[in-house]
Each structure stands twice: as structure tokens, then as C-alpha cells.
Amino acid sequence: MMLEGSEASDSELAARAKGGDREAFGALVERHYAFVHRVAYRWCGRKADAEDIAQEVCARLGRAIRGYRDGGAFTTWLYAITLNAARDHARKCAREAAKTAAFGVHAQISGEAAGEPVEALWAAVRQLPDKQREAVTLVYGEGVSHAVAAEAMGISEATVSWHIHEAKKRLKVLVRQAGEG
User: What is the tens place of the pLDDT at every residue in 112-160?
Assistant: First the structure.
């Protein structure tokens, strides 16, 4: 008996998708799209970029599903794909910005100030080094444990804790600077 997408577990859907079942793959994407978009938005802070990253994750998922091993939570595996896509997108944007600067075309950046303290904090998080930003996004943005964040980031739990600690120190400085500016 085939399970409907809404009734099947992530593991069951992933197993079916690995076998070429397009409906199972579609059910996985539908089930987790909002999650991927949310992680991407917290990473980059721009809706358009988050949408681009989420679309890229969907494309990557189609190729990567064959490599999924049912040893851990599907969402942990999906975190890793999403964070990799976000990093790749940031590198692509940096390359594009460098090209723009090299050709003397100056892009205008909107000066909209974040109206809410939460947005100001996430804006400061986006200024952190990648690993610190990832750790904060997963632990505080998504509410996962240090152990789950460690698995998604491919590092030890102690290293996640260290990145969180360092991020908190940097955020105090960044938030203070933002308040003075």
C-alpha cells in the first residue's frame, strides 16, 4: 500500500524519492519548503535572496536525494544543504558585487532601518563570520540543540558552543555600534 505524502514520514518519502517517485519528492519539497526559506532568510536577511536560496535547495535536493542516508533526521541533512546553498549564494553575490565595482557601476543600497530590535539583532548576526552565523541561526533562529547544529555543520558540539560564545561577544559590539550610529 502506498502512503500518501501527508501521512508518510520523511524517511519513507525520501526512500521513495530515491527510487524515482516524483510524488514523494514533491511531498518532501512541499513539506519542508517553508523551513528551508526560513533558514535561508535568517542567514541572508533578504526575502529575494532567501527565495533564490530556497529554489536552489529544491534543485539540489533533486540531485542529492540519492545520497540521503536514513541515519539521522531528514531536517538535519536538509540544514546542511540549505547552509551550503546560502554560502554559495553569498559567494556568488560577492563575486557579482566585485564585478559591479570593477566596472564602476555602483549599486544603491536601500537605507531602510530595521524598525524592530529583533530585526536589528538578525542584521548584526548577518555580519558575523560564516560559522558563527550558522551556529546562531541554527541554535537561536531554529531552536535546535548544539548537537543537531554540530551534525548539520559537520563540526563537534564543543565547536558549536565556542562559535556561539564568540558570536555573543561580537554581537555585543555590533549592537552597541549600531546603536551609536
Answer: 343 456 777 888 888 999 999 999 888 888 888 889 899 999 999 899 9
27 phi, psi to nearest 5 deg: -65, -40
Write the secondary structure of the chain as one string of H (helix), E (strand) and C (coil).
Answer: CCCCCCCCCHHHHHHHHHCCCHHHHHHHHHHHHHHHHHHHHHHHCCHHHHHHHHHHHHHHHHHHHHHCCCCCCHHHHHHHHHHHHHHHHHHHHHHHHHHHHHCCCCCCCCCCCCCCHHHHHHHHHCCCCHHHHHHHHHHHHCCCCHHHHHHHHCCCHHHHHHHHHHHHHHHHHHHHHHHHC
**Cα torsion through 54, 60, 62, 66, rounded to 10:** -130
- The amino acid sitting at 114 is A
Residue owning grid cell 551534525: 151
Q: Which pTM does this prediction carry?
A: 0.61
Burial state string for 28-38 with b = 16 or more CB within 10 A and e = fewer than 16 = bbebbeebbbb
